[in-house]
Amino acid sequence: MLLQARRHRLGPGRPQPRSARGARGDGLPGPARPRPGPLRHLRGVRRAVRRDLAVGPGQLRTPGPAAARGPHPHRREPAAVTTAPHAPALTATARKRLVTGETSDPHALLGPHPAEGGVLFRVLRPLARAVRITDPSGGTLLELRHEGEGVFSGLLPLPEAPDHRVSADYGGHVHTYDDPYRFPPTPGELDLHLIREGRHEELWRVLGARVRTHDAGWGPVSGTSFAVWAPNARAVRVAGDFNVWDGRAHPMRSLGASGVWELFVPGVAEGCRYKYEILTPDGRWILKADPLAAHAEAAPGTASLVHASRHRWGDADWMARRAAAAPHREPMSVYELHLGSWRPGLGYRQLAQELPAYVKALGFTHVEFLPVAEHPFGGSWGYQVTSYYAPSSRLGSPDDFRHLVDALHRAGIGVIVDWVPAHFPRDDWALARFDGTPLYEHPDPRRGEHPDWGTLVFDYGRNEVRNFLVANALYWCEEFHVDGLRVDAVASMLYLDYSRPDGQWLPNAYGGREHLEAVEFLQEVNATVARRCPGAVTVAEESTAWDGVTRRTDEGGLGFHLKWNMGWMHDSLSYMAKDPVHRQYHHHAMTFPSVYAHAENHLLPVSHDEVVHGKGSLLTKMPGDRWRQLADLRAYLAFMWAFPGKQLLFMGQEFAQDTEWSHDRGPDWSLLRHGAHAGVRDLVRDLNRVCLGDPALWSLDTSPEGFRWLDADAAQDNVYSFARFGAGGEVLVCVFNFQPAPRHGHRIALPHAGDWTEVLNTDDTAYGGSGVVHRGPVRASDTPLHGFPASAGITLPPLGAVWLRPA
Prior knowledge:
By secondary structure, the protein is α+β, with helices and mostly antiparallel strands. 22% of the residues lie in helices and 24% in strands. The protein has 4 domains: 18-182, no CATH class; 189-305, Immunoglobulin-like, CATH 2.60.40; 316-564, CATH 3.20.20.80; 567-806, Immunoglobulin-like (Sandwich), CATH 2.60.40.1180. The longest helix is centred in the C-terminal third of the chain and has 19 residues, at 675-693.
């Protein structure tokens, strides 16, 4: 936490917390610093009469001997007191507000407070038959009197509150607990200031449920501090396993203009379920999960869980290397997967035993997880997030997820998670109308509702909402050591008229369609991640021609490191779906993406979106019989790895899965028993191996100097050829034949004469091909072709790709 709250201890010579001073109209009045002598008591009584206290004549008394003696040592055990002067009772109005939960400062009424004649104790236990104050060993200090409606009070004739407990008798069952209302606020003044300004970058350390220990003066007290932002609530209570889901016993206090409500509950430990009971402005009590819960109950449950991490990281070497690296300027290939269905039935810890070895064997540099944050429906991708700070509990605990990330790092594999700041679902127990008003969502439905998905859109112009999201991005990078965020649906954030007809969207302040607040938010989150998490990457799923997605924020860009090249994906898959007879009429689909290939830093995605909702698998998008489909797929993958940009491939496509994604079944691993499918997997492995070892494929990835067409116009032949160049003078020539017949003696242009070696051929029998390969060198002569100084005749395999490197 950026600023710890001041520690207070009730007693002479110490300043009292605001709640103890009774500054609110519904609170218990009392002097800020007790002063000796009868005048102090008379003044206190006069104040009480003016406020909410019903004062009887028996309460006008001077301090007894116990009060006259000075403060006791911290651990002194005072004599048991079973009979005490009557405590000042609350008025009926004040008591009703307390009992019904409509007070915003319960600490002013409950707990120990300095009063005339000693220390006033007041406890709210609606179902208790008797309540007493005990010492730590269980000895009775004070029997409290029942004022009515579950409010108990009593006056202990001591100058300060001793170490004590509250013991409530429920007709034979006695519950003894530490009093939550004797502790100061957990958030400090600077914390609250930063929350109001939207600049608290470690928000998760202040809000939510955090296990902590209070130094109470008489010794450490462990428990959980609950803090939630609900600025429009009339009152907030916390309910959970610890109070049998009856929040009446645990009203929270409002921390002023910050909109934060807080309560420290001693004894509440990790694993305890809880929710917030919120009194809305229109007088309804609603039950809400914690927006900053670190752990969420597994579906169908919707409660939040208290969590305290015990994971010890073993990835220090990885994190040090990451901080000094720039993955978007290095070889990068991403294996995208849905954790719940990669191997159905495996949790985070079981995945940690299998996934790193599998991904490492294939040569991928990173994995990308579809949304890990908790969401209601396990059979979905996970884009309807209800708990942004909690990894899904379907697969284990937050520490189990940390264990998985740790295992991947130790295997040398980076971790990217899918992040969803564009929208959130309407579930009434989650973020929607959180305090009874549009809070996280924009209040105007023309900006606050998403017409395509039936979800709600964040109010990016509100400081606290923007803070919630920026801190969440940092949370995943810092608390879980993830190495990047793939930001979903960026286009829907950038345009106010996205999927909205005329008249159904609000223009910006200048009359335009650009969502200026969303632009500022994206710039802030990217700049903040870059500053605080060196080496972490942010990737935009952005499907339009918005300028500067990967340009630096200080140059006016959005600040992403990479952008999904949706145009390349759409055009190339459209071409591959055509029968080879018709491909010549769509030749431009494979060449046009080179026009804008270097306008941004691109990642080429063949993602989950292409293998669901009736689209089939990548294999079944290819025309023809199974042999042609497999050959086309191999050639297409080689084209993808050779084209400028990083690569992303969804699980199952690495071995030519023949059905679209199913949450229940996952990839059909049995296909690997068939040579052709195992061959595709081996091809992907070799594509990654060649890419990692050849700077021509990545060192000038974002520069026009790294790519040149050798022949972009062989439409009638369905042939493409280009060269890739590296920063150190490396060169790799890539040739593709997208027709089902081999081409013998096909002449290609080359950057220079001499011998060239075949580095990769997708028609190799090792990959399931027909074996049309070059066993020896390809000799290039000084015969110019297509503006290049040399050329050679080669054999092109059917529906195949050939990569050549200077011998």
